[in-house]
Amino acid sequence: MTAFLSSLGFGLVTASVLAIAATGFTLQFGVTDVLNLAYGAVMTAGAFVAYVLNAAGVSVWIGLVVAMIVCGAGSVLLNACVYAPFQRRGVSPITMVIVSLGMTLIIEFGVQAAAGGTSVSYSMSDGPSLRAGGLDLSVVQLVVIGLSLLVMAGTHVLLRYTRLGKAMRATAANKTLARNCGIRTGRVIAVTWAVTGALCGLAGVVFAMDAGSFGATSTDLFLVLILAAVFLGGPGQAYGAMLGAVIIGVATEVSAAYITPDYKYVIGFVILLVMLGVRPSGLLGARA
Amino acid sequence: MNSFYIVNLLIYAAVDAMACLGLSQQFGIGGVTNFGFIIFQAAGGYTAAILALPSQTANGGFQSYIGGWHLPFPLPWIGAAVVGGVIALPFTFLVGRRLRGDFAAVGLLVTAVLLNLLVTNYRPLLNGDAGLSLIPQPLQGEFDPQSSGYGWDFTIGALIVAVAVYFFVRRLTESPYGRTLRAMRDNDTVADSLGKNLLSLRTAMLVTGGAIAGLSGGILVSYITTWSPAAWGYAETVVLFAAVIIGGTGNHLGAVIGAICVPVGFEEITRYIPTSNNLPPNLIPSLEWVAIGLLIVLFLWFRPQGILPERKRVIRVPDTAGVPAQPGARPRPAPDPASVPEPRPRPPGGRTVLEARDVSRDYGGVRAVSGVSFRVTAGTVTGLIGPNGAGKSTLLAMLAGTLPVSGGQVLYDGKDVTGLPAFRRARLGLVRTFQMASEFKRLTVMENLLSAVPGHRGDSFRGALAGPRYWKKDEDAAAARARDLLERFGLAQHAGSYAGDLSGGQRRLVEIMRALMAEPAVLLLDEPMAGVHPDLARTIGTALTGLAAGGLTILMVEHELAIMDEFCDPVIVMAEGAVLAEGTMAELRSRAEVVEAYLVG
C-alpha cells in the first residue's frame, strides 16, 4: 500500500507537469493547426533559461517567470518566422511536421551547443516534506501541483468566460468562418502562440524541477507522454488534454512502481498507439 | 588518402544511398511519411548480427542475445532484408486510410523513440545498451577481413547491391504502378475514389522501404561488426529525411546525391574540423544536428523540389494508336467514352442502377442528410439541385463511399454496397468527381488520365516488376484513349503539362476526363461546370448527354439552372438534408414548395 501511495504521489506530480504541457500543446495545435513537435525542445530551452539565471544566483522562481516570458516570445517568433510563412504558402500538414522536426533539431541541439552535453540541476531547496494519509510530498512538489491546478482553472476561465477564449475556440473550429465573422484570426493566433509558449516554458521549468537533473535531450521521451495525453483526450481538446494528463501521469508512475522504472514510458506509448489506431479523435473528441 | 579510408567512405556511401533510396520510394513516391524509418535499418542490422553470430555461450558469454545461428554469408544479408520487410506489417494499421498522415507520422516517430528505449533497457534480447559486437564479417573464414583486398571486395559487393536497389526502385516508379503511387501521394482521397486500394499500396511501400532499409542495416553491421541503440536514435531518421528532401523528393538519383551530401558529407566534414581542447564537449556534434535542422527548413523554404527535382514523365502516344483494343482485353459493361455513339432514344421505364434507401449522415450533432431515398435510372443524366448546405455533396460522397453513412443503404446495380469502401465501388463502375480541385498536381495531364485506367497490367507491384514489355500494350491503348479524350475536350496541347499548373476550368476538365478513363457505369459529378466558361460548360454537357445515350448513367450536382434545363432529366431537389421533389425541370418550376426553397431567392 505504501508503494502504491508513494507512486501515486509521484504520479500526481508527473500528471501536474504533464497537464501544463499537454494543455499548452493541445491549445496550440487546436487553434494554430500546427502539430509543433518542437514543443519539447522549447520546454528544454525554457528549463535552461531558468538554469542560467539560477546559476547566476537568481531564485529559480524568478527564473520560471523569465522562462515563461522567453518561451512565449520565442514561440511567437517561431510562428511568425517559420510556421506562418510555410502555412501561407499552403504546404501540406506533413511538410509542416517535417519543418517542426527540423526546428526541434535546431532548438534542442542549439541549447546543447550552448549549454554543453552534461546534465544540470537547479540549486533550490525542496522545502520540508509533508505527509498526509500516506502521501509524501515536498513543498516544491505541492507548488507544482498547485501551479498545474491554476493553469487548468485559468484555461477553463479563458476558454469559457473571455472574449479571447471565445475567439480562440471559434478560430480552432473554423478559421475562415471566424475571420468572416470579424474575428482577427491573425491576432488570435499570435496571442495563442504567446500563451501556449508561456505554458510550454512553465512546463519546461517544472519538468526540470521534478526531474532533478536534466539535459538538452531530456524532453525527447517526455514529448511522448505529452502526445499520449493529447491524443488520449483528443487533439485540440483542452479538457481532454487535462484528463489525458492525469490518466497518463498516474498510470506512468504507478506502473513504474510495480513493473520497473525503465519501462514507465511504455504505457504512454501503448495508449498513444491504441488511440491513433482506434480513435484518433480522442476520448472527448467528436467522432470523425 | 589511404585505401582503408576510401573503402570506408564508399561502403558508407553505398549503405546510406540504399537507405535513402528506400525512403525515397516510400516517402518521395508513395507519400508515406515514416518517421520510424530507422527502426527498419536497425532491425536489419540486428537480424544480420544474430544470424551471423555464434550462440552466446560459444562467443565468450560476455554478450547476451537471442539467436546466434552462425549462418554463412549471404544468409545474414537476406535475413536482414526479409525481417526489415516483415516488421513493417504491424505498422500498416497506422497508415491506413482513416488516420491523418501527420498523425500517423507522429505515431511512427514515437514508436521509433520507444523501441530504442526498450532495446536499450532490455539486455537479454539484444545485449541492451552495450549492443552487439564481434559480429562475423562475410566469408571471414575463407578470407582475411584485415587485408586490403577484402575491403575492396566488400566495397564492390556493397556498391553492386546499392546499384541493384536503385534499378529496383526505378523500375517500380517508372511504371503504371509508380504512377498510382504518385497519385496517392498527391491526393489519397481522390486516388481512393478512382479504385486505388490505399491500404495495400501503403503496405507495399512500408514493406519495400523496410526491406531496403533492413538490407542496408545488414550490410552496415557486417562491415562495422558492431550494432547498438546509439546507432539508431530517432534523429537518424531525420538525417535520412534531410537527405531525401535536399536531394529531391520523388527523384531517386536525387536521393543518392542527398545520401552523399548529408549523412556521408557531414561525417567527412567534421573529420576535418580541428579538435581543440578549448571547445566545450559535444559542441561539434550538436552543431551538426543544428545544421541538419537548418538544411531541412531552408531547403523546404527556398528549394522544396530539392537539388534534382522530380522528373516530368512525358508519355508518347504511339502512332498506331487508335486501333481497336486487342482481342482478349477485359470485357467492360461501360461504353468506351472516347467514342461517342449515335444518340439513341432512351427506353422508357429503364432499370434502376443506383438507389439510396433512407440514407442519412450526422456530423457531430448536426444531421446533414436525413433519410434520403431515390432511384437513378440507367442511361439518364439525373440532376441534383438545392441550396448551399442542402447536403448534396455529402450525399454524393456517401453514394461513392468517400464518407460512411450514418444510416440507410446504398444499392448499386441491385447489390447493397453500403459496406464497401470507395475504391471497391469505383472498381465496380461507380465513380465520382469532387467539388474541390482534385487533380494530381505533380502528375501531367496525360498521367492524370492514365492513372484512372482500371485493370492496367502494369498497375500492380508484380506487373511493375515484370517490366514495360509486360504492360506496354495496355499503356499504349490507354494513352490512345486518353489522347482522343484530350482532343475532344481541347486539351491535347496540355497533355504534357503538370495538372497543377492549369487554370481552374481546365483542371475541372481534367477531372471529368480522368473519371471517364475509369470506365464508369455510373458517374457522380459534383458541380462539374463550376468555374467553367459557359461555352465549355455546353461542350461538357453535350458530351455527357452523348455518353448517357450510349449507356452511361450520370448523377450531377449543379447550381446552374440553365444547365439543368438543358441537360438533366429528371432533376432531384434537396433542401435541408431531405429530398423535396423530383421531376423534370418544367414540372419542378410549377411546384410552389420547390420554387420557394430554391428556384427563387
Structure description:
- The complex is a heterodimer of chains A (288) and B (601).
- By secondary structure, chain A is mainly alpha-helical.
- Chain A has one domain (2-100, 141-278).
- Chain A is 75% helix and 4% strand.
- Chain A has helices spanning 2-32, 39-55, 60-88, 93-115, 139-161, 163-173, 175-180, 185-211, 219-233, 238-258, 266-278, and strands at 120-121, 129-132, 135-138, 213-214.
- Chain A has a two-stranded antiparallel ribbon. A two-stranded antiparallel ribbon of chain A has the order 2-3.
- In chain A, helix 1 (2-32) packs parallel to helix 5 (139-161), helix 2 (39-55) packs antiparallel against helix 3 (60-88) and helix 10 (238-258) crosses helix 11 (266-278).
- The model of chain A has no long low-confidence stretch (mean pLDDT 89).
- Chain B has 601 residues and is α/β, with parallel strands linked by helices.
- Chain B has two domains: 3-232, no CATH class; 352-599, P-loop containing nucleotide triphosphate hydrolases (Rossmann fold, 3-Layer(aba) Sandwich), CATH 3.40.50.
- Helix content of chain B is 51%, strand content 10%.
- Chain B contains 23 helices and ten strands.
- In chain B, the strands form two sheets. In chain B, strands 6-7-8-3-9-10 form a six-stranded mixed β-sheet, with helices on both faces. Chain B has a four-stranded antiparallel β-sheet with strand order 2-1-4-5, with helices on one face.
- In chain B, helix 1 runs parallel beside helix 7 (148-173) and helix 2 runs antiparallel to helix 3.
- The model of chain B is unreliable at 321-347 (pLDDT under 50).
- The chains are: A mainly alpha (288), B alpha/beta (601).
- The interface between A and B is large, with 48 and 49 residues.
